[in-house]
Amino acid sequence: MFKLNKIYFVIFILLIGCSTTSMEFRSAKSATRAEKNLQRGEEWGIKALKVEPNNALIPYFLATEIYKPQERWDEMADMLNEAENRNSEQQLEKPIILDPDNITKETLLLTVGQGVQAYREEAWTMIFNQAIELITLSEKDLALTKLELCLKMDSSRPETYNALVGYYAEKGDLETARGYVQTGLEINPTAELYEINAKLLQNQKLLEEAEAMYLKAMTLVGDDNKKLLGLKKQLIFVYIDMNKNQKAIDISNELLDIYYDDPDLYFNVGVLYQRLATKIYDGAAASYLVFNNGDTSINITSMYNQFVECMSYAQQSKEKFLEANDLETEDTGSREAAAEMRKLVKQIKEIYIPSIQEIAKNEGVKLN
């Protein structure tokens, strides 16, 4: 959940002089503040909008004192936009502060533009938290409505795009998901959005583009080692799918040298070697089957080397899974994964290797 920053009004008077306002605007404020009649306040406020077309305080008033208390977020967003468009530098009637215990230039807000941004953030936080609660309750269609309101309230927040992308990706609508990513990157390019874009591209097997997005994200995380670690973990699997196995191994070794006590990393590296082993095994086993069915075009030496390489990766995978198991505080399946790799090593060692050695001997082929 995002923390809600409350807005406090300062109770001293600004010595900036008083400007005259229309009867309509004065009536709107009187009906709202004195009479507590929001309906009449809105009616007079809408009239005042037309009478004073350049006064930014009128849409600001409607947004913050009429629509916000009623959680009429659409109309609030419209009026905040109107206030900024009219005159973002116009002075507020009363200054507001974000932190009463720490009054600084940054927390003391004097202009309409500053006030609009503060109210945008407050409203966005309320709506976004409601959306997350609805997602947790599996009320995802209602959550979508809230997320669309978030977008209207403050289109610069990457969290909104992240959530919208997740919603559409889960539904299998990758085109719409990527559309939101692209829009988000145009408005406010962040490491999170580049990472999300990379994952979508990775799922679509657009691997070179995915690699570029992960690398771009890595340039934006700065000194955040936790985020950098997560991105490099993802990049490892992109390189596997691109058949850039050595790059994947190099990154893995680099990370293990730094995060030598991270069980999740050992597990992921175990998965890396497992995937490499499985990929090679599938090809080698298929060649073995074809050869035994009479296809003599299969290169026996190449097939043998494939099984040897597969066995090496499976052995390394088993070791990493066991190291992960030693570091874990609770069972995550590392021991079972190690057992599977041990079984694969045994199968290659006791069945395939001796069989191919016998084949090679009979065919007069010298193995390395």
Brief summary of the model shown:
The protein has 15 helices and 3 strands.
Which features does this protein show?
Serine Threonine Protein Phosphatase 5, Tetratricopeptide repeat; elongated; 3 strands; mainly alpha; 72% helix
Overview of this protein structure:
This protein has 368 residues and is mainly alpha-helical. Among the domains are: 8-132, Serine Threonine Protein Phosphatase 5, Tetratricopeptide repeat; 261-368, no CATH class. Helix content is 72%, strand content 4%. The protein has helices at 23-34, 38-51, 57-67, 73-87, 112-136, 140-153, 158-170, 174-187, 191-203, 207-220, 225-241, 245-258, 263-292, 300-327, 334-363, and strands at residues 8-9, 91-97, 108-111. The chain has a 3-stranded antiparallel beta sheet with strand order 1-2-3. The protein is elongated. 34% of the residues are buried. Mean pLDDT is 90; it is low at 9-18.
Shape-level CATH architecture of the domain at 8-132: Alpha Horseshoe
What's the CATH class of the domain at 8-132, please?
Mainly Alpha
CATH topology of the domain at 8-132: Serine Threonine Protein Phosphatase 5, Tetratricopeptide repeat
Helix tally equals: 15
Tell me what portion of residues adopts beta-strand conformation: under 5%
Shape category:
elongated
- Low-confidence stretches are 9-18
